Amino acid sequence: MPGDFIVINFFALEGWSLAELYQVQCVVAAPYVLPYSAPSSFERQFRHEFPLLFKYFQEAPAEKVSWKDVQHWMWPLFSEDWGSWRSDCLNLSPLPFMVRNCQVSTDMISPNKYFQTPPLLFEVYLLLVDFETHA
């Protein structure tokens, strides 16, 4: 239905694939700043293994999912663990942003062309205490 969405956090990335499966928007909400970063070899390996997908992210408009999003938080979605789950359990392409082409037994970049960047909602509390007046 229009307006439906799935809210995930960085430790429940399967929600991204479920949103893709049900064709609804995905929103990321986290009470913390991202606790990890992509391995140093990630970009080089990604570019080598998926050159068309790398180009797709490089050419994405600012408001769409781009290489910046992949580097920032989406990189785990491209791991083999998620790929086999997506393929075996959800019958999706092993890689996000790809669709299965049964006619030629391969995956191709989604015909949707570009996906909207999901909102990232971080909640970080800062406690400021004036120790001189509370001493």
What does this structure look like?
With about 140 residues, the protein is an alpha/beta fold. The protein has one domain (about 5-120). It is built from five helices and five strands, in the order βαβααααβββ. A three-stranded parallel β-sheet has the order 1-2-5. A two-stranded antiparallel sheet has the order 3-4. β3 and β4 (about 105-110) form a beta hairpin. It starts with a strand and ends in a 13-residue tail after the last strand. The model is unreliable at about 125-135 (pLDDT under 50).
Give the amount of beta strand, in percent. Answer: 15-25%
> What number is the mean pLDDT?
78
Structurally, the number of domains stands at 1
Cα distance, first to last residue? 56 Å
Helix percent band: 25-40%
Give the overall shape.
globular
Classification by helices and strands: alpha/beta
Rg from Cα: 18 Å
The count of helical stretches stands at 5
Pick out the low-confidence regions: 125-135
What is the H/E order? EHEHHHHEEE
Q: Gist?
A:
The protein is α/β, with parallel strands linked by helices. It contains 5 helices and 5 strands, in the order E-H-E-H-H-H-H-E-E-E. Helix 2 crosses helix 3.
Helix and strand topology:
Elements: E1 5-8, H1 14-22, E2 25-30, H2 42-49, H3 51-58, H4 67-74, H5 80-90, E3 98-101, E4 106-109, E5 120-122
Helix pairs in contact: 2-3
Give me some keywords for this one.
single chain; 135 residues; alpha/beta; three-stranded parallel beta sheet; two-stranded antiparallel sheet; 33% helix; globular; disordered C terminus
